[in-house]
Specification:
Elements: E1 3-9, E2 13-20, E3 27-30, H1 34-47, E4 50-57, H2 64-82, E5 91-98, E6 101-108, E7 114-118, E8 125-126, E9 129-130, H3 133-145, E10 148-155, H4 159-178
Parallel strand pairs: 3-4, 7-10
Antiparallel strand pairs: 1-2, 2-4, 5-6, 6-10, 8-9
Helix pairs in contact: 1-4, 2-3
Length: 195
């Protein structure tokens, strides 16, 4: 079974995440930030991942540590659930519209972390979260999931739509990349023989 549980506790946050890559899209998420919960719910539903997240953070300071550490632990969960990455498709991409917005995410579960995020935001905050934290979330996820992640908002006017389209595209791209390819017969998808 490709599933795992990750726990992280610091002086600023505490997160417990359970992830099943071969799920049905069920989600139980409580980070203390309702808009982030909403985005993570999209990740589970559209990626067909079973996802449980229980988190607390120093929201009396601001939302930065909570968003950052959620991404950090979620990336660790993907990395652990993927194991040695034998038999996976490895790469995935998705373009997702949300009304006037179009977002695109491309991932390679290569074991080499790198994130490139291109997004122009129209306001400084959406849903109680600084819009600058959405690229930071994706970059942090790329590092701890050990994946190459490129994301961009091609166009859009509404920051809620832009964030939602990004998370839906992330979900669809990850679902493709995490999929088991029966033609690989359990082999690692790399000419090097390992990821």
């Amino acid at each position: 079974m490709r599933k795992t549980t990750v726990h992280r506790k610091t002086a600023e946050t505490e997160f417990q995440i359970a992830l099943n890559l071969d799920g049905t899209g069920t989600a139980q998420v409580d980070t203390g930030l309702k808009f982030l919960d909403h985005m993570l719910h999209h990740l589970a539903v559209h990626g067909l991942f079973d996802l449980e997240i229980q988190g607390t953070g120093d929201l009396e300071v601001d939302e930065h540590h909570t968003v950052e550490d959620c991404a950090l632990v979620l990336g660790q969960a993907f990395d652990q659930a993927l194991g040695n990455r034998q038999g996976i498709v490895r790469m995935g991409s998705a373009a997702v519209p949300m009304d006037e917005t179009l977002a695109e995410v491309v991932v390679d579960l290569s074991g080499r972390p790198y994130g490139v995020i291109q997004a122009d935001w129209h306001t400084s905050r959406v849903g109680g979260i600084a819009t600058s934290l959405f690229p930071h979330f994706l970059e942090t996820l790329a590092v701890t999931a050990r994946c190459n992640l490129h994301a961009r908002i091609r166009y859009g006017r509404d920051d809620h739509h832009q964030a939602e389209a990004l998370f839906k595209a992330l979900a669809r791209a990850l679902e493709q990349a995490c999929r088991i390819d029966p033609r690989r017969s359990g082999e690692v998808p790399s000419t090097k023989g390992s990821l």
